[in-house]
Amino acid sequence: MPVDSADYRNAISRFLTGVTIVTTVADDKPSGLTATAIASVTLEPPTLLACLNRHSSTCQAIIQAGRFTVNVLANDQTDLAKLFASREADKFQRLAELGQGLEISAFGTPHLMGALTSIDCAVSATTDIGTHRIFFGEVHRVRCGEGSPLGYFRGAFVDR
Ligand SMILES: Cc1cc2nc3c(=O)[nH]c(=O)nc-3n(C[C@H](O)[C@H](O)[C@H](O)COP(=O)(O)O)c2cc1C
Description:
three-stranded antiparallel β-sheet, globular, alpha+beta, 3 helices, Pnp Oxidase, Chain A
Protein backbone atom coordinates (compact mmCIF):
# COMPACT_ATOMS: atom_id res chain seq x y z
CA MET A 1 0.00 0.00 0.00
CA PRO A 2 1.36 3.46 -0.82
CA VAL A 3 1.96 5.80 2.10
CA ASP A 4 -0.58 8.56 2.81
CA SER A 5 0.14 11.57 0.53
CA ALA A 6 0.37 13.98 3.51
CA ASP A 7 3.03 11.75 5.10
CA TYR A 8 4.91 11.63 1.79
CA ARG A 9 4.74 15.43 1.44
CA ASN A 10 6.04 15.82 5.00
CA ALA A 11 8.96 13.49 4.26
CA ILE A 12 9.93 14.78 0.81
CA SER A 13 9.82 18.40 2.03
CA ARG A 14 13.04 17.52 3.88
CA PHE A 15 14.82 17.06 0.55
CA LEU A 16 16.56 20.40 -0.13
CA THR A 17 16.11 21.49 -3.74
CA GLY A 18 17.06 24.41 -5.91
CA VAL A 19 14.30 26.62 -7.31
CA THR A 20 13.67 27.17 -11.00
CA ILE A 21 11.26 28.96 -13.28
CA VAL A 22 10.35 26.88 -16.31
CA THR A 23 9.38 29.07 -19.26
CA THR A 24 8.14 28.67 -22.79
CA VAL A 25 6.30 30.55 -25.54
CA ALA A 26 3.20 29.25 -27.32
CA ASP A 27 1.04 31.29 -29.70
CA ASP A 28 3.45 34.23 -29.14
CA LYS A 29 2.47 34.24 -25.44
CA PRO A 30 5.08 33.58 -22.74
CA SER A 31 4.25 31.15 -19.91
CA GLY A 32 6.18 30.18 -16.82
CA LEU A 33 5.91 28.51 -13.46
CA THR A 34 8.05 27.98 -10.40
CA ALA A 35 9.28 24.38 -10.27
CA THR A 36 11.46 22.33 -7.96
CA ALA A 37 10.78 18.96 -9.62
CA ILE A 38 13.77 19.22 -11.95
CA ALA A 39 16.62 16.75 -12.29
CA SER A 40 19.55 16.06 -14.54
CA VAL A 41 19.09 12.72 -16.33
CA THR A 42 22.16 12.04 -18.46
CA LEU A 43 25.10 13.83 -20.10
CA GLU A 44 24.96 11.74 -23.30
CA PRO A 45 22.81 13.11 -24.80
CA PRO A 46 22.59 16.10 -22.43
CA THR A 47 19.13 15.65 -20.92
CA LEU A 48 17.17 16.92 -17.94
CA LEU A 49 13.64 16.33 -16.76
CA ALA A 50 10.92 18.69 -15.59
CA CYS A 51 7.83 17.37 -13.84
CA LEU A 52 4.75 19.60 -14.32
CA ASN A 53 1.17 19.39 -13.16
CA ARG A 54 -0.94 18.81 -16.27
CA HIS A 55 -3.47 21.40 -15.03
CA SER A 56 -0.88 24.20 -15.12
CA SER A 57 -1.05 26.54 -18.08
CA THR A 58 2.71 26.20 -18.55
CA CYS A 59 2.42 22.42 -18.99
CA GLN A 60 -0.12 22.92 -21.77
CA ALA A 61 2.06 25.60 -23.39
CA ILE A 62 5.11 23.28 -23.40
CA ILE A 63 3.05 20.52 -25.01
CA GLN A 64 2.22 23.02 -27.76
CA ALA A 65 5.69 24.56 -28.11
CA GLY A 66 7.78 21.38 -27.80
CA ARG A 67 10.50 23.37 -26.04
CA PHE A 68 11.20 25.03 -22.70
CA THR A 69 13.88 26.74 -20.64
CA VAL A 70 14.83 25.96 -17.04
CA ASN A 71 15.94 29.21 -15.31
CA VAL A 72 17.77 28.33 -12.07
CA LEU A 73 17.13 31.11 -9.54
CA ALA A 74 19.67 33.03 -7.50
CA ASN A 75 19.18 33.79 -3.80
CA ASP A 76 17.95 37.35 -4.49
CA GLN A 77 15.06 36.10 -6.67
CA THR A 78 12.54 34.92 -4.06
CA ASP A 79 9.97 37.50 -5.26
CA LEU A 80 10.24 36.01 -8.73
CA ALA A 81 9.72 32.49 -7.36
CA LYS A 82 6.56 33.66 -5.54
CA LEU A 83 5.23 35.49 -8.59
CA PHE A 84 5.66 32.47 -10.87
CA ALA A 85 4.09 30.14 -8.28
CA SER A 86 0.87 32.13 -8.72
CA ARG A 87 -1.67 31.68 -11.50
CA GLU A 88 -1.67 35.39 -12.39
CA ALA A 89 -2.26 35.92 -16.09
CA ASP A 90 0.22 38.80 -16.34
CA LYS A 91 3.30 37.33 -14.62
CA PHE A 92 5.60 38.57 -17.37
CA GLN A 93 4.21 42.13 -17.29
CA ARG A 94 4.98 42.27 -13.55
CA LEU A 95 8.68 41.48 -14.02
CA ALA A 96 9.60 45.14 -14.55
CA GLU A 97 7.94 46.10 -11.22
CA LEU A 98 10.27 43.61 -9.52
CA GLY A 99 13.27 45.09 -11.32
CA GLN A 100 13.80 41.85 -13.24
CA GLY A 101 14.97 41.74 -16.83
CA LEU A 102 13.66 39.37 -19.46
CA GLU A 103 15.06 38.33 -22.81
CA ILE A 104 13.60 36.04 -25.46
CA SER A 105 16.56 33.85 -26.37
CA ALA A 106 17.64 32.79 -29.85
CA PHE A 107 15.97 29.48 -28.92
CA GLY A 108 12.66 31.38 -28.69
CA THR A 109 12.06 30.93 -24.96
CA PRO A 110 12.15 33.46 -22.08
CA HIS A 111 15.39 33.88 -20.15
CA LEU A 112 15.14 35.57 -16.75
CA MET A 113 18.08 37.89 -16.24
CA GLY A 114 19.97 37.32 -13.01
CA ALA A 115 19.28 33.58 -13.03
CA LEU A 116 22.29 31.37 -12.26
CA THR A 117 21.74 29.55 -15.50
CA SER A 118 19.13 29.28 -18.26
CA ILE A 119 19.02 25.87 -19.92
CA ASP A 120 17.19 25.60 -23.25
CA CYS A 121 15.59 22.22 -23.97
CA ALA A 122 13.70 20.53 -26.79
CA VAL A 123 11.19 17.96 -25.56
CA SER A 124 12.59 14.52 -26.46
CA ALA A 125 10.14 12.29 -24.55
CA THR A 126 7.27 12.53 -22.09
CA THR A 127 5.52 10.28 -19.62
CA ASP A 128 2.51 10.81 -17.36
CA ILE A 129 2.45 9.80 -13.70
CA GLY A 130 -0.67 10.59 -11.67
CA THR A 131 -1.43 14.32 -11.94
CA HIS A 132 1.89 15.21 -13.58
CA ARG A 133 3.67 15.05 -16.92
CA ILE A 134 7.40 14.46 -17.00
CA PHE A 135 9.11 16.25 -19.88
CA PHE A 136 12.53 14.98 -20.85
CA GLY A 137 14.39 17.88 -22.44
CA GLU A 138 17.41 17.52 -24.69
CA VAL A 139 19.63 20.47 -23.87
CA HIS A 140 20.34 22.67 -26.90
CA ARG A 141 21.86 25.78 -25.33
CA VAL A 142 23.02 26.98 -21.95
CA ARG A 143 23.65 30.45 -20.57
CA CYS A 144 25.54 30.69 -17.28
CA GLY A 145 25.88 33.48 -14.73
CA GLU A 146 27.40 33.84 -11.28
CA GLY A 147 25.89 34.01 -7.80
CA SER A 148 24.49 31.95 -4.97
CA PRO A 149 21.47 29.65 -5.30
CA LEU A 150 17.94 29.96 -3.96
CA GLY A 151 16.85 26.80 -2.13
CA TYR A 152 13.58 25.29 -0.90
CA PHE A 153 13.33 23.21 2.28
CA ARG A 154 10.33 22.21 4.40
CA GLY A 155 7.99 24.62 2.61
CA ALA A 156 10.21 27.69 2.86
CA PHE A 157 12.69 29.46 0.60
CA VAL A 158 16.32 29.34 1.72
CA ASP A 159 18.18 32.44 0.52
CA ARG A 160 21.50 32.24 2.36
C1 LIG B 1 8.54 26.11 -4.26
C2 LIG B 1 7.53 25.68 -5.30
C3 LIG B 1 7.85 24.62 -6.15
C4 LIG B 1 6.95 24.19 -7.14
N1 LIG B 1 7.31 23.17 -7.97
C5 LIG B 1 6.46 22.78 -8.95
C6 LIG B 1 6.85 21.75 -9.85
O1 LIG B 1 7.95 21.21 -9.78
N2 LIG B 1 5.95 21.39 -10.83
C7 LIG B 1 4.71 21.98 -10.94
O2 LIG B 1 3.93 21.60 -11.84
N3 LIG B 1 4.34 22.97 -10.09
C8 LIG B 1 5.17 23.38 -9.11
N4 LIG B 1 4.80 24.39 -8.27
C9 LIG B 1 3.47 25.01 -8.43
C10 LIG B 1 3.38 25.98 -9.62
O3 LIG B 1 4.41 26.96 -9.57
C11 LIG B 1 1.99 26.68 -9.59
O4 LIG B 1 0.98 25.70 -9.68
C12 LIG B 1 1.78 27.72 -10.68
O5 LIG B 1 0.71 28.56 -10.24
C13 LIG B 1 1.40 27.19 -12.05
O6 LIG B 1 1.31 28.31 -12.92
P1 LIG B 1 0.67 28.25 -14.39
O7 LIG B 1 -0.69 27.58 -14.29
O8 LIG B 1 0.55 29.71 -14.79
O9 LIG B 1 1.59 27.49 -15.28
C14 LIG B 1 5.69 24.84 -7.27
C15 LIG B 1 5.36 25.91 -6.41
C16 LIG B 1 6.29 26.32 -5.44
C17 LIG B 1 5.94 27.48 -4.53
